[in-house]
Design goal:
By secondary structure, this protein is of the alpha/beta class. Helices cover 39% and strands 15% of the residues. It contains 10 helices and 10 strands. The strands form 2 sheets. Strands 3-4-5-6-7-8-9-10 form an 8-stranded parallel sheet. Strands 1-2 form a two-stranded antiparallel sheet. The chain starts with 5 loop residues before the first strand and ends in an 18-residue tail after the last helix. The model is unreliable at 271-276 (pLDDT under 50).
């Protein structure tokens, strides 16, 4: 049974480098998906209040029989819980729906800079981390400008910044910024937001070289970039394929070819809006 390697976070905790994304599965679908994924060796599950499936994720965890200590569970609080103290209620609701005493990673889902509350929200996150209800705290869809403000006005550097990353949206500047500040970049939509990326002939060509699918080539690219990837699927065969990316290495020629997939700086989700 394959398991993803662990990456150390800036707070000393460790995150599996590949996990299961759960949007847009509903409670029933996600419970089955989580049971299947955990049986295959996944130990990292990503959800969010906005996804409306935390209850199903919790049911899947319980049905799986896997020890809670082996798991890394992420959830995210959206705009409803931004503002001083509001994340306390938000996390309590998530823990109740998940049936857990703590989550491993809690993220601010979007900065929503026009609202101007992500600083006060982060200060509440710091208190939640100190309380033990969450092991690590981080952000999602934050740009360097938002993080600069966070560093200036708060005490804890985010452990993770979850942003949209793929070979077609590689975001080298944002990733370099995160790395300079000790923040792990986590890729959502790592296989592309649509199927277009996986249809690229260059991926089929590289995949043929290693006996791998286009999706496996893309996930291997994430692994070799030091990224954490959370591909989303409810398909058991796809789950197996997604986890089977730790037995080959892309060479420099492969990586150069993958650079041709870059769709340019304007691709991807704008963090000023609620994107995923």
């Amino acid at each position: 049974m394959a398991q993803a390697p662990l990456i150390e976070l800036n707070d000393g905790h460790k995150i599996p480098q590949l996990g299961l994304g759960t949007w847009p599965l509903n409670d029933v679908q996600v419970a089955d998906a989580v049971v299947e994924a955990l049986s295959q060796g996944y130990r990292h599950i990503d959800t969010a209040v906005k996804y409306g499936n935390e209850k199903g994720v919790g049911e899947g965890i319980r049905k799986s029989g896997v020890d809670r200590k082996e798991l890394f569970i992420t959830t995210k609080l959206d705009g409803e819980f931004q503002g001083a103290g509001r994340a306390v209620e938000g996390l309590d609701g998530s823990l109740q729906r998940l049936g857990l005493e703590y989550v491993d990673l809690l993220l601010i889902h979007w900065p929503l800079p026009r609202r101007g509350e992500f600083i006060s929200t982060w200060k509440t996150f710091e208190k939640l981390q100190a309380s033990g209800k969450v092991r690590s705290i981080g952000v999602s869809n934050f740009k360097p400008a938002h993080l600069d403000q966070l560093f200036h006005e708060t005490n804890v550097v985010p452990a993770v910044n979850q942003i949209q990353v793929s070979p077609s949206i590689p975001r080298p500047a944002a990733r370099a910024y995160n790395e300079r500040h000790g923040i792990v970049t986590e890729s959502y939509s790592p296989l592309g937001a649509s199927s277009d990326l996986l249809n690229a002939p260059v991926l089929a060509s590289i995949g043929e070289k290693y006996g791998k699918t286009p999706g496996q080539v893309v996930l291997r690219w994430h692994v070799q970039q030091g990224l954490v990837a959370i591909p989303k699927t409810a398909n058991p065969q796809r789950m197996r394929e997604n986890l089977d990316v730790f037995d080959f290495d892309l060479d420099q020629d492969d990586l150069s070819k993958l650079q041709t997939l870059d769709a340019g700086p304007d691709a991807g989700v704008d963090s000023d809006v609620q994107g995923h």
